[in-house]
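User: Okay, second chain of the day. Same drill as before: sequence in, structure tokens out.
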Amino acid sequence: MAAGLQCFDAQGRLTFAATDRLARVLGRVDTGGQSGSTAHDGLPGNQPYFAFFPDYSSSGTRWPVISISGNTLSCLAMFLALFCLAFISGCGGGGSDYVDNPQLEKSNEYVNMPAGFQIIGDHGVVQIDENYTNMGLRHRGQAALTGLTDLVVADVDTPLLCIKSPNMAVMLVGATRSGNSITYRLASAAGTIDWYVFDKMRPPAAGSSGAGLQVYTAAGVLAFDSTNPPMRIVGIADLPNAQQGVYPPPPGAITAPASDYAACLSFSRVYATYGGQPDWMLGDGIKTSSTGVVTQSIVFKQIPPSAIPDGYLQPAGGKLFLVDVTNL
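Assistant: Same drill. Structure tokens below.
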């Protein structure tokens, strides 16, 4: 191997290399339906992204506007934006980046680090250390979707849902949380998808060989475990902001060398348009392929005529990101 670190599973398959870009958990915020902001020192210097899940458990559908500036994540409660669960993560540099203007800076300056353990990618950004927990595969499965479909996933902490859907676009409409279980509401045409839930890494199951690499925080919390297949980010792209009166919004896309991919969208551009009887609400669905992902507008809700004026309820473009799920 070239200079660096590699981890392999029991079948001898490569699961992690120091050139990979890994996701690390920074936190989770429940807005309680209010506008506000939260600061985190892990936001600057990385390539942070977030995913939010509108809570559809009560009447209506809710979309806030969320933004990151410096070390601050802000949430603005807009029309019908009552509840929101925002998940914040950071993506380090490393590997090949297939995103225009990735805003990653390569540094040749190195400083002495405190006692501990660090893996630094070839962009000079920390991928693994004792400060933040890396994300690994927690659950995966297949789901048959028809229109609006609920996907229930148990045993989660800070979950992030990624979808592999080569045959149709799929929109994450919202989610509701109950204890350690989360229910995702998905909208699509009829078809089958593969889904992957990434979450904080956890120790291997009892009775396993015990071979591998583990990193712990100063508080004794597991930060990295090589038996957990890590979430490997291939690319991140910003969706263009929508313009009122222009429908559908311009698509977002990430193109990469052929591999096995799933994708996630941080939030959807949502708009209402008159379709006769009734009106329609549309949002961004994601459709994957062996060479990347593209967004496509899909209908996810019918509403009474003129219940909501035509136009964008959520015009801001979210972040689209592509994840390599080879061998998962």
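The chain has three domains: 6-94+116-133, 135-221, 238-324.

User: Thanks, on to the next one.
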